[in-house]
Structures are given as structure tokens and as C-alpha cells.
């Protein structure tokens, strides 16, 4: 039987040395591509984990900010109510003062 690079003999494909080197080179390239893909996958997984942590921190910061805002609004409302009350008391006091001055004039 004549041996050629494309001849099938006893269930095995015979390949030339050049074809074998090319196949090995391609296997090496594919292995390197796979290694790089795994590295990229690991980097993407790490980035996703980091982003998840950062998102959780941002949500917590937002919650704290909303709590501070709510407290500030409550304090503002309390301060406005106190201001209105003091202003009303001042106006009442001025009216009483005017009445007392008028009474005093009546006695004099």
C-alpha cells in the first residue's frame, strides 16, 4: 500500500509532518485563546462582584441620605411651627402691651 498524507490505513488517518505541526500550532492557539477567555471570564466575574458590592454600598448610602433628609424635613417643620408659635406669642404680647398702655392712660 502506498503511503500518502490523505490515505486511510487500518482505521487511522496518516498526516504529514507539516500537517501535524499545523494542527499542533492550531491546538496551541486554541488553548491560548481558551486561557485568555478564562482570564477574561474571571475578570468579568470579579468586576461583577465588585459592582454588586458597590451597588449595595450605594443603596445603603441612599437609605442613609433619605433618613437624613427625612430628619432634616422633620426638624424644619418643627422649627417652622416653633417660629409661628413665637411670632403669635409676640403679636399677642404686643396687643396686651397696647391695651395696658391704654388702661394706664385712662388712670392718668
What does this 3D model show about the protein?
This protein is mainly alpha-helical. The chain contains one helix and two strands, in the order ββα. The protein has one helix at residues 17-107; strands at 8-9, 12-13. It has a two-stranded antiparallel sheet with strand order 1-2. It is rod-shaped.
Compile the SSE list and pairings:
Blueprint lengths: L7 E2 L2 E2 L3 H91 L1
Antiparallel strand pairs: 1-2
Give the CA-CA distance, first to last residue.
Answer: 148 Å
State the helicity in percent bands.
over 70%
* Helix and strand run: EEH
Strand content: under 5%
Determine the number of helices (DSSP H or I, runs of at least 4 residues). Answer: 1
In short:
With 108 residues, the protein is mainly α. It has one helix spanning 17-107; strands spanning 8-9, 12-13.
Task: Give the key terms.
108 residues, mainly alpha, two-stranded antiparallel ribbon, disordered N terminus
